[in-house]
UniProtKB/TrEMBL annotation:
Its EC number is 6.1.1.19. The lineage of its organism: Bacteria, Pseudomonadati, Bacteroidota, Cytophagia, Cytophagales. Its main location: cytoplasm. This is Arginine--tRNA ligase. Residues 5-91 form the Arginyl tRNA synthetase N-terminal domain. It comes from Fibrella rubiginis.
Amino acid sequence: MDLQASLKTAIQQAIQSLYTDPSAAPEPGEVLLQPTKKEFEGTYTYVTFPLTKPLRLSPVEIGQRLGNWLVANSPLVRAFNVVQGFLNISLADIAYIQSLNALIADGVAGAQQPDTEATQANRVMVEFSSPNTNKPLHLGHLRNIFLGDSVSRILAANGYTVTKACLVNDRGIHICKSMLAYQKFGRQPNGTFETPESAGLKGDHLIGKYYVLFDKAYKAEVAELVAGGMAEDEAAKKAPLMLQAQEMLLKWEQGDAETVALWEQLNAWVYAGFAETYRKTGISFDKTYYESQTYLLGKDVVEEGLVKGIFYQKEDKSVWIDLTAEGLDHKLVLRGDGTSVYITQDLGTTDLKFSDFHSNKSLWVVGNEQDYHFKVLFAIMKRLGRPYAEGCYHLSYGMVDLPSGKMKSREGTVVDADDLVDEVAAVAAQAAADAAKGKLDEFSEAEKQDLFRLIGLGALKYYLLKVDPQKRMLFNPAESVDVHGHTGPFIQYVHARIRSIMRKAEEAGLSTSVPADEATATADRPLHETEQEVIVLLGQFAQSVANAGRDYAPSYVAQYVYDLAKAYNRLFADVSILSEPDAAKTQLRLSLSAVVAETIRKGMGLLGIEVPEKM
RNA sequence: GCAUUCGUAGCUCAACUGGAUAGAGCACCUCACUACGGAUGAGGAGGUUUGGGGUUCGAAUCCCUACGAGUGCACCA
């Protein structure tokens, strides 16, 4: 049992001793502890105010009695003080040592090991990325992807079997636009059509180029029509390029061989481009759904809803659902001509996803502009009596803004994902040139490039993940690649620093993972304050991971790992490890350091960030 | 207009979900063991938590309200 849990049990027993009817006392799980504020003496604080009513005692009186009971009865508690309703508890060194030893015995810093049987029963699908195949990935996608990837890892660490899924938006009018532009403008002077090879572009960038070309040419057409006296909205509908794109969509839906062949060719290039971006950023998926294969689904769900009387039909045959009871509106679920709308597809794909993997939970990592859509989707699923409806969750996140304002693809202000990843690696290389001194001398050029990418990605991922997903965030290019302060590279650096000491210790024949001798916890050999602090933090890792899983919040883990790294750096400045004369202290600090390094590695791993041995 | 999310130091973000004198980083100013890895550590300055009410032992957090910002309110996806 970890330190906090043991202490809570002790406090609960103390509380029980104050009750005449012990069964009326709170459960150990209800005992809330908080870290003692710096300006007070103590490690943990228990707030006594809530007990004043049932016990009919003053907060101070309760604190005094609890404190006395704990000092008398719990070997964990060395001393206490009471300030108003706050009982500040000072732990005995033996408590820290036992806590550390428990972590060492666990193999590593206590993120719970998934129990296989439960894991099988806890299946969750996390859908993220969900790109369109008409343009390359950009900064907004990166926030989405890193979030989805990290949440997947965090859920896995909490005992879930996770399926990472991607739903590719590979069809529709916008895809036809880039296809049309390619057909019209893609022919080179030598008569052949442009390819990624001939253009020297990644496939997704090549297609993105044609999507932009379409938009330009289309706008020119609209302007011309308007100049000829047509109203703007009419011109937007009647521009030849738009009509041709619609015609192309119709052909695609009819399975026209030539159109389908073009579509397949262009999409194949885009997928190759995406694959490259995913590879560079360390992202993978277990399952990919293609909208071209799912967009017709959902009509039978609409039929089912009609039969059950959950949906209703208007005179024009369109199908609706009345969600006013849920505080939502009337929502169209099928057009009058029998064709699907966005939500029709999602009704179908949601069923499909659950039947494919028998998940009991499903997450959609999708931007907050679709909050309403998902409220409606989940409400419908509930009305339809889907048993999994309760397990549906929209992990909503805010937009990423630039210092210059919003990203607008039409205005060319989007930050391209590939460019960004290359750039952060370049900046990391520069930082290494400034700071790494001779540490990387024995690295080959390829190893260096890998390291710089690892650090650059560490900076970028950490920068995007440390912020609460719900909030829109500002992307400051200079800060995103910073290696100082509250950043990924700072944490990576602490890891490299510890590993360096570990190597030296091993060369000197010292072990780095033996439990500390409990006998060393004596009054004449007190633990240093920062040692206590680091041990307390280590004990909170598992809870932090659990909370992050509960709230789907990688930012908790990001904050935790930073706090740990920072506390360790303080320890490092305060005490000596290898040059400490007391061998028992050296041993304790080595073991402590090893657990810290491992916890940092694990924690960063949950963010999808690797940590280096040297940097 | 209706719905919804957000508003915390000059800037970017925290605050264990209602607890003490609201914490970090960046930027600015000091300082540090001849550096077990200085991509470091310590300190200073910086706040009426957008304004105003309310709930209670106690509010950045919950409720109401005003203001400001984002997003959604298509038979687009």
